[in-house]
Structures
1.
Amino acid sequence: MESVNCQLSTVNYTKAILNILTQDIKYLQGVGPNRATLLANDLNIKTVGDLLAYYPYKYVDRSRIYKINEIDGTMPYVQLCGQIFSFDSIGEGRNKRLIAHFADGTGTIDLVWFQGIKYVAKNYDCRKPYIVFGKPTVFNGHVQIAHPEIEPAPEHLKTQARTTGNLFEEGALNANLQETEMEAQPTMFKGLCPSYNTSEKMKRSGLTSASMAKLTANMFKLLKESLPETLPSYITAQHHLMSYDDAIRNIHYPSSPEALRHAQLRLKFEELFYVQLNILRYVKDRQLRYKGIVMGTVGEQFNNFFYQHLPFQLTEAQKRVIREIRADMKSGRQMNRLLQGDVGSGKTLVALMVALIAIDNGCQACIMAPTEILAEQHLDTLREFLGDMPVRVELLTGSVKGKRRTEVFRDLVAGEIDVLVGTHAVIEDNVLFHKLGLVVIDEQHRFGVAQRAKLWMKNSVPPHVLVMTATPIPRTLAMTLYGDLDVSIIDELPPGRKPIRTVHMFDAHRLRIYELMNRELALGRQIYIVYPLIKETEKMDLKDLEAGFEEISRAFPNYQVSKVHGKMKSADKDAEMQRFANHETHILVSTTVIEVGVNVPNASVMIIENAERFGLSQLHQLRGRVGRGADQSYCVLVTKHEIGESTRKRIQVMVDTTDGFEIAEQDLKLRGPGDLEGTQQSGMAFDLKIANLARDGQILTIARDTAQSVITSDPEERNPQNDILWRRLRELRKSNINWGAIS
Ligand code: ADP
Ligand code: MG
């Protein structure tokens, strides 16, 4: 009887909490219809539950009250306690501002408002004790605080605030003995106080961080009962995690720095755990649902190529990854593998040899590149490698039009094309294969899980998928971005390559740069000069490129100079690239269109102008265009003389190492995962609320292992202790579009 009661009450209580969490944010005290619209539009907060999950981005220590004579303009936020002794209104119209002279017995400071002047004048009085909070700045040699937060001082601080007034006017304080109606706000004076991000628009309407804090405080007034747990107790016990209820309360209003750390740990773990559980659960489903085409034979084409056409020995690393891929292909499971290998490590060849295995097993293969130039280059490379072998390779990109396109479509579905090379165009629904057995996605970290999933529909049994990337990805990022893939790594460059020598030079060193160029040109080498693309304006800043082209043409009259940029017609661009590849031109001045994959082994110098404008992985990609032959190559990073600390660090990383993995780790550290190229559209987990892949690698590893052991130990999902966890996962999938798209 007792246990029934107990269960009943649990149900009721959960329901009550649920009712609050699903309640429209509009009805929360302090919100109303206007703010509700703002919250929904700008922060996607529609319910009380959404507000609960909107964590502060930082905390301000309010445990300390400073004295005015202690502060200066270099300090971060400070809290003062004292009184306003007079107001001044200065200026007219737009320049109008209100100044409150504020004193605490140790000195005076000006509080300044440019907006909301009427409100301030009406709501704050002279001679009353206030707590003031803000960032001190220096203006005309005086320390001031603009737009401070200001609230009546709580009881225990009133005396302190008042004694200070005596400095200005004896006995003037008797006037204000009746402020008992002023209640200290719960958000103030409490030690660590939350700061919430709000949009500019919200700030203009008065929805500042401080008003958000009032809303969250109101929310917790409603949430009297404990929030239901979101992880099974055996997992929280195993990792000594705080309860969900404690964690949520402490993440908004930490009771101590220690409690905040525990709360952060708990919520980061939970977040990463569910991301990983989602990925791994999906991998399991995929394995159950889809069989793979069994490719048991290594036959005529592969052997013919290997023994008759391969122009050099495979590196040990290439052999190893081909073995790994081959094991997948004959396993009866669908292969989903990531091939990581630094620039120049010879991935294209691996792709070709794997494609030959597919062909030997009666299938077609398809190789996708991110750009038309690269697709065309792959086409050429493959045809050259294959020589007179009876393997038909064709191209399909946006530029393949009319009759040609119709032919490709026709021969593809008839099974007369063995390998189709192309851009995104190849996965469009109208492209039909006879029997597609393998898809290779090259240099394509912009290809999310959901997009990959689309490929599987191309054949009754889904094709094997190999994703190749030359941008080494830090382990933590790979685990999330490519968490559903098995990984192979080419950790060795073909023999005889000399490490590229990288130097940092300033604009002013032009002559030394020309010297290097002349020397290399005289040796018969070729040179790339790259200018950055100005992304923010969404069009290219061609001025630098044009000016550079003119200057170089003048400085090197005996050599041919090519120019390539993204605004050129595709055919013209290709023609110029081709001229450079054929050694008809000696210097190629371009924007980043040459970034990935372009292969001209005779080029030995890469000059990157305005190197400060590039990200590390981009610099690494660009540098990888040289050092492809046996000769010493050089990379020159040119910057202006004054560069910031973070730029200096990035350049130094490039000078110090050519190891792509090291560079990727540094990049992640210096920039954070949100900025990493390609991650935005990854379709998985990048709207992390609290965890940070750059910093929380350790938590991620534990979360991944924990998720894996849940899947392994409870494959049928029968363990009642895990019910809570599958329920939560379903909820998360529903509320997160990206997660849903892959399930
Ligand atoms: P990436 O991995 O950057 O795509 P590529 O496939 O473009 O590298 O290969 C870079 C260069 O190295 C190409 O010219 C390729 O022909 C050559 N290459 C590939 N494998 C070997 C090898 N085992 N020995 C010598 N050269 C190789
Ligand atoms: Mg490549």
2.
Amino acid sequence: MLDDIKSVDETLITRTIIQKAAEDWVKFSECDVIVVGAGPAGLTASIYLARSGLKTLVLERRLSFGGGIGGGGMGLHKLVIEQPADEILREVGCRLEMVEDGVYVVDTAAMIAKLSTGAIDSGAKIILGITVDDVIFRSSPIKIFGVVVQWTSVIMSGLHVDPLPIRSKAVIDCTGHDAEVLSVISRKIPELNIMIPGEKSMWADMAERSTVEKTGEVCPGLYAAGMAVAALYQTPRMGPLFGGMLLSGRKVAELLIKKIKS
Ligand code: 48F
């Protein structure tokens, strides 16, 4: 049995990783949509964007998927989903248990696995360990043309290493409560007059509806989905009720598919 294990030259490992990673970076140095953050909103958006044939790159700061899904409700491994968001999870084969009519509970691990598999199977490229640090912009009229990225490990080290730009037709801020891309432009492009007041206190029903309603374009080339929307418009939080995150991700994808493909 041990004789069956293929021997692999160490330098082949190195050459393969460097060459194949470089091929991805070159291929995605220009793409249709950059999704910043692989939480529920970002993963859902990327499923529909990539499925429609748009070249979709998801950049995630951590070395794992799912954003806030894994934390469930106060660390318990369950989340609540309300209709019609259940249809998004059913599409990717995620098991749901009905709690009452139109209300479901889901295992956090299953939701992370199925949404991320759905995004990858649809053709989205997800790269982990990358932090979006800034945007590319042009003035008169102001438009966002992509993002500036850095290894998360470099940012954590505190070393001064210049980042690299990636161009895209659109960028979606799916970075959650801190709305990180929007925060950067609020500081660095003051002419946009964008402020990030942060979300309001909890009101689950209102939060779900307003997050989905206000999901969309913030300025030319830049969109917001998920909790970044609540942080931008100071709408309420909803806690571990996640239907709005999925519907927000699907809505931003539909808006962009229409815009880019028309
Ligand atoms: O926080 P997160 O899950 O955002 P979301 O998709 O969903 C919010 C819910 O999880 C929950 C909630 C709903 O009731 O309140 O909090 O809006 O996922 C955001 C992802 O973005 C990554 C971060 O690591 C997380 O995985 N992220 C944040 N900033 C950056 C980033 C950045 N600058 N560059 C790359 N990734």
